[in-house]
Specification:
The protein has four helices and eight strands; from the N terminus they run βββαβαβαβββα. It is α/β, with parallel strands linked by helices. The radius of gyration is 16 Å and the shape is globular. The chain starts with a strand and ends with a helix.
């Protein structure tokens, strides 16, 4: 799902995949096998093009965006990305050193900040 600054949904779709999904992580994602073959699912190439068009010239805001970008096999200019997973005030100290910062789970951030 992609929303704009005013929280209006710009794109909300499932993506058809060419490989077998071995774990939908339904308890986290809410996605089931039927979702990827429904009328709401679009081919990856179509979604990739739509996302690239929507994001062109825009600042991308989210959490752990690298995972989404990798899944879609797209890039976005680093200077136009605001990722709460990599924002130092939201990160936690490393287990072996307080100098090393590690991303926190979105669930933790929401619980603490919202």
């Amino acid at each position: 799902t992609i929303c704009n600054w005013a929280e209006k949904v710009i794109l909300d779709t499932f993506v058809q995949v060419d490989v077998e999904v071995t774990d939908y992580r339904t308890f986290v994602s809410g996605i089931e096998a039927k979702d990827l073959v429904s009328d709401n699912a679009m081919p990856l190439e179509d979604v990739r093009k739509m996302v690239k068009d929507i994001l062109s010239g825009k600042i991308l805001i989210g959490h752990a965006l690298e995972n989404d970008m990798t899944a879609l096999q797209i890039t976005h200019p680093w200077h136009d990305i605001r990722d709460s997973a990599n924002y130092p005030p939201f990160m936690k100290e490393g287990e072996t050193s307080p100098v090393v910062l590690r991303p926190r789970k979105l669930k933790e951030l929401v619980r603490e900040k919202l």
